[in-house]
Amino acid sequence: LALVYLIKRFYKTEWKGNWRKHFSVDEVNGYPGHELKYDGRKMVTSYLRVGVSSNGTWRIYKLRQDFVAATKVQTEDDITASTVVPASYIDGELNQRYSNPSVKLVKNCENRLFQRPDDAINRGLDTQTESDLAEDGNFISNFEPLTSADARELVEDAINFQEYSRPMQQLICRAAESEGQYFVSSAHPRIVDGEHSKNVRYLQKRPDLANPRSLYLARTGTRLSRGLTLEQPVHFPVNAVLQGRRNNPEDKKAGIRPLAVYNPIHYQELPELFMDLICSLTGKSPSTTGAGSEGALTKGPFNALSTTADLNNALVSFILCDYAGYSSAAGYIGVQRRVDHDISMLIPEIWCRLPIKQRDPKYLIKNGYLEKIEDFKYEGNPVNASRLGYRITEKFVHAFFGKVFDSPTTVFDEEMLRPETQGMDAYVDGINNIVEAQQKVARAYFEDGSIDDACPPLRVVLNIMANGEYEGKTIDDPSLREMFTLDYLLKSDWYKERLVIKQQRDAALWQMNRDYIEHKLDDSSESDTGAWAALQDRMENAEAMLEWVNSDSYLERLQGTLGADWIHRGQG
């Protein structure tokens, strides 16, 4: 099969079926060799690491011979501004293969990205980090400061020195010739209490700014594909939500319960997804001292607002845009399979190769690519496993991971797809850990009164998390699940209230703009005709906008947008 993929990759129609003359092997000691050649050039096989064995060895798997990695342009990281608009606002400027009723547009707010290059300790593995650290003007944390003597020692160790990529080699050679200065090696974390720091960090120059050519080519290709003029903007709205979740096995010494109950990819419908987002439970990480809730939407340490405002907005966004909530596993799958970030890095390669129809969870569920996780009893006690949603099956692995790997089912075997087979006790405790953490977090909304600021569907979720039911109904009740649909949202009084609040706030803004311009006119001299005329133009524009935002037509145009949250009831 690998040979078929290889021929497929290099085949040209002008060969007219005569492919054999292009592929050959040398004769070694009178026998055919084992290294395949294409037009006299040796073929190179590529491999990918997917996890680490219990003894620390890497789990390496062969990629298909016709696999070519996608070119990715990262434009977002931690801090992003976003808005949701109806697709009709930018009709004709979007990819017509998508049918989302509204879309989320995002814009990065950062110039540099805060990176933790865990794999850089392996020389030559993380070439991006080695290249970045070899540049001047870096902000670096928890790397060991090395001297020129250290640099000379590294250079003299010729075998290990050659494992570095070229930029890091050049930096070390320069450092070896410079006395009285410090430098860092990507493979040398700071020594803390006799051990390497597990929290090395640096600020990476944003890739789309460091290499603007990639983004320019992406925009130009998209412009040509969509038939846009040079004056029309090129929008790249969100079209897939692929969250990463960090999982860990039990650590009794540190008092950390297991969390590694997810297989490589899960899908959750909105009620279960928002139970997760409200709690934002994270496993033990090299950059933290423990595990637990990071606050709603992982924004606990950074948010001065009541969390219901962000959660209301996020829920409205998901419903309006019809986004599906997928997540990938990082850290561990089950108590034994350590995967670090290998799967999270792989998922975009899979997703960009899936036709749009096949990304739809309805299609995946109907065709057996996703299986629902049902509640069950263990040792006589109920286990709310349905909170985990759906998970991928062996059929998904064979069909879609087969686009990348020669033998996908050996990459994701039974123990990876069903973590409970690695130990049912740990699996059940992990689910109970999630349910109990969700209950604890939800009860805080009742204690501080912020439950009153939650929109009705969110209030349902919080009640289910805290008490297991809402008005005598469980989360499986069709009448409750209907509250998370677009049809319900658009007809609901609380969504219409959000639109009215948005209209009122916009009207207040334009009233303030008009009053400011009027004040400037009073302070200006009519003899300065240029300035006076400009202010008059702005006054006319402000008055026109004020009339427009107060109209019924403006309120109708807001349909399909986020509107505005009430923040706290009675404080519009």
Account of the protein in words:
The chain folds into four domains: 2-62, no CATH class; 113-205, no CATH class; 238-489, no CATH class; 493-557. Strands 13, 14, 17, 18, 19 and 22 form a six-stranded mixed beta sheet that branches. The chain has a three-stranded antiparallel beta sheet with strand order 1-2-3, with no helix packed on it. It has a three-stranded antiparallel beta sheet with strand order 8-12-9. The protein is of the alpha+beta class. The longest helix is centred in the C-terminal third of the chain and has 31 residues, at 493-523.
Please summarize the sheet with the most strands. 6 strands, mixed
Structural class: alpha+beta
Stretches with pLDDT under 50, minimum 5 residues: none
In total, the number of strands is 22
Rg value: 28 Å
What proportion strand? 15-25%
Mean pLDDT across residues = 91
Keywords, please?
572 residues; alpha+beta; three-stranded antiparallel beta sheet; 22 strands
Write a brief structural summary.
This protein folds into four domains: 2-62, no CATH class; 113-205, no CATH class; 238-489, no CATH class; 493-557.
Strand and helix layout:
Elements: H1 2-10, E1 23-28, E2 31-38, E3 41-42, E4 47-52, E5 58-62, E6 80-86, E7 102-108, E8 112-115, H2 127-133, E9 140-141, H3 148-156, H4 158-161, H5 166-176, E10 191-192, E11 195-196, E12 201-205, H6 207-210, H7 212-226, E13 241-246, E14 265-268, H8 270-279, E15 281-282, E16 292-293, H9 307-321, E17 325-333, E18 337-340, H10 342-351, H11 361-366, E19 370-372, E20 376-378, E21 381-383, E22 390-392, H12 394-400, H13 408-411, H14 414-417, H15 424-447, H16 456-467, H17 478-481, H18 486-491, H19 493-523, H20 529-549, H21 552-557
Parallel strand pairs: 13-17
Antiparallel strand pairs: 1-2, 2-3, 4-5, 6-7, 8-12, 9-12, 10-11, 14-17, 14-22, 15-16, 17-18, 19-22, 20-21
Helix pairs in contact: 3-5, 8-9, 8-15, 8-16, 15-16, 19-20
